[in-house]
Specification:
Number of strands: 0
CATH class: Mainly Alpha
Number of helices: 6
CATH architecture: Up-down Bundle
Low-confidence stretches: none
CATH topology: Four Helix Bundle (Hemerythrin (Met), subunit A)
């Protein structure tokens, strides 16, 4: 009896697994939210390589992209409409602490300033900003209620 029922159970498990994957694939917004942290970490690892090479412009570009990409994906904001005000509003509606929002705005301002103004940033300052970005994304991951 057990030998005959095993293929039936395997078939049912395969069908259930396939339906689950199809449902997940159809949920584009959910997929973006789930992959937001992974993509941010990937970009921050590239920023770390630029940090070690002391390439300031590339470093701040990657930190900026990691931060904005994470926020866009996690908060479901289209890149065309992504702005500090939109992000702040969405984070407030999701009960993110004001201190975290202030740190985020500070990091974004630092990246923008470093990218678009001549800056003589020291390596230790870049390391501090890298650590801030890593901690900030981790904090946002904990605080954002999906």
């Amino acid at each position: 009896m057990g030998i005959y029922s095993t293929p039936v159970f395997l078939f049912l498990a395969l069908v259930a697994f396939r339906r689950r994957n199809e449902t997940l694939a159809a949920d584009v917004v959910g997929t973006k939210r789930r992959r937001a942290l992974k993509l941010a970490k990937k970009r921050l690892s590239m920023a770390d390589k630029h940090l070690k090479a002391n390439d300031k412009k590339a470093f701040y570009d990657e930190v900026s992209r990691a931060t904005w990409g994470y926020l866009g994906d996690k908060l479901n904001i289209d890149m065309a409409t992504l702005s500090k005000d939109n992000v702040e509003e969405k984070l407030q509606t999701r009960s993110v602490k004001p201190e975290t929002i202030a740190r985020l705005k500070g990091l974004i301002n630092t990246c923008e300033y470093a990218l678009y103004a001549p800056v003589s940033d020291e390596h230790s300052e870049m390391q501090k900003n890298y650590d801030l970005a890593m901690n900030l994304i981790a904090d946002l991951e904990d605080e954002i209620k999906a």
